[in-house]
Amino acid sequence: MSTTRFILDSSVCVDLLNGGILELTFALPFEFLIPDVIVADELIDPTMDQLIALGVKVMALSSEGVEYVVTVSKRYTKPSRADLFALACSKELGCCLLSEDNALRKAATREKIDVHGTLWILDELIRRDLLSTTNALSALEMMISKRSWFPRGEIDKRRTKWGKED
Questions:
Q1: Nearest partner of 85 among 48, 13, 76, judged by Cα
Q2: What number of other Cβ atoms are within 10 A of residue 58's Cβ?
Q3: Which of 11, 19, 104, 128 could form a disulfide with 83 if both were Cys (CB 3.0 to 4.6 A apart)?
Q4: Does the structure show a pLDDT above 70 at 30?
Q5: Which region holds residue 115: left if phi is over 0, alpha if psi is between -120 and 50, else beta?
Q6: Nearest to 4 by CA among 88, 96, 82, 115
Q7: Rounded distance, CA 1 to CA 77, Å?
Q8: CA distance 116 to 3
Q9: Which residues contact 53 (CB under 8 A, 6 or more apart)?
Q10: Residues with Cβ < 8 Å from 160, sequence gap 6 or more?
Q11: How many CA atoms lie within 13 A of 13 on its CB side?
Q12: Non-local CB neighbours of 151 within 8 Å, separated by 6+ positions
């Protein structure tokens, strides 16, 4: 699996926007792609134009990828059709999926697709000295206040660690 390309799901885009770190995220040395179906069907804020301006590439699936979506939609009924397009894009390109959608993350794991989420992005921003732990904690709290959901243990772990650093 490629570790330099990532497929974005709308849930992560919304979290990053809500945390005030959308632009900063795209300073990471990665290539970010988003399925055209997500842009058309799910994403309102941030807009497609915002994401493209930040360097995100909009991706259309091949016909084989669309067939894969049809196949996996019978196996996984909880992720939305747009989410399954993100899964298929990750499969087609052999790259990691970035999502906070629990049903999509479970499907990705079952399909042997690497998956990370918003907390991983925060960790990467800190690791690469693009974001201080204080600002990461602030971004996390803003996301939570705007109804982003993360596993309680992961939140507590970061609150403890980031509250002591800087």
A1: 76
A2: 15
A3: 104
A4: yes
A5: beta
A6: 96
A7: 25
A8: 11
A9: none
A10: none
A11: 25
A12: none
Strand order in the sheet with 95-98: 57-59, 31-35, 2-8, 95-98, 115-116
Residue with tokens 């397009």: 85
Return the half-sphere exposure (C-beta side, CA atoms, 13 A cut-off) of residue 68: 19
Determine which helix (DSSP H) or strand (DSSP E) holds 14, and give its type and residue range. Answer: helix 10-18
- CA–CA dist 43, 65 (Å, integer): 21
Q: How far apart are CA 139 and CA 17, in angstroms?
A: 10
pTM beyond 0.90, yes or no = yes
pLDDT of residue 44: 75
**Measured on CA atoms in the order 101, 123, 51, 113, is the torsion positive or negative?**
negative
- What are the tens digits of pLDDT across the range 65-115? 999 999 999 999 999 999 999 999 999 999 999 999 999 999 999 999 999
Quick one: tokens of 164? Answer: 């002591």
Give residue-wise pLDDT tens across range 91-105. 999 999 999 999 999
